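Fold it.
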Amino acid sequence: MSVEYDVATLLREPVGSTREYDVDDEMAVMGDEALCRVAGHATFLRTEAGLLVTAHLRGSQPDACSRCLQDIDVPVTVDFEEEFFPTVDANTGFTLPPPADPDSFRIDAHQVLELDDAVRQTWAGAMPMQPLCRPECRGLCPRCGRDLNQGACSCKPEEDPRWSVLQQLVQERK
């Protein structure tokens, strides 16, 4: 699904004209994965070159806890301010030259602005590097794989060889 806005009328209005939109839709925010509900608010401001879009959106992304591997929904909040440039003049229909930055966001020839790419790029940066089911997650036992949140396992603690010199000093003192 795609979050699209017909901005033909706004592109014909003077610089400084605005539109306010409530966003509540499903999007593929992380590539071809399942759709996620994204909700929030967006403001479109007419600029000399196009439209400045300011958005505050929130949603959740299915993921796995980085410690215990349980399925979780990671809450995500994204805020962005991006300028979108039209590909054709809304008044004349003539093709416009591309903006200086080849990676800038574009408004298609039918004056339809799609928020998907801007949301997707911002969403990816807002995702935590290591999502957790809860801050105190104990993770999995490295030997038997038991979820330590459900109780201790029967594995004996592994001796860390880095402490051997210290243990040797303790033995010598006794």
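The first strand starts at residue 4 and ends at 6.
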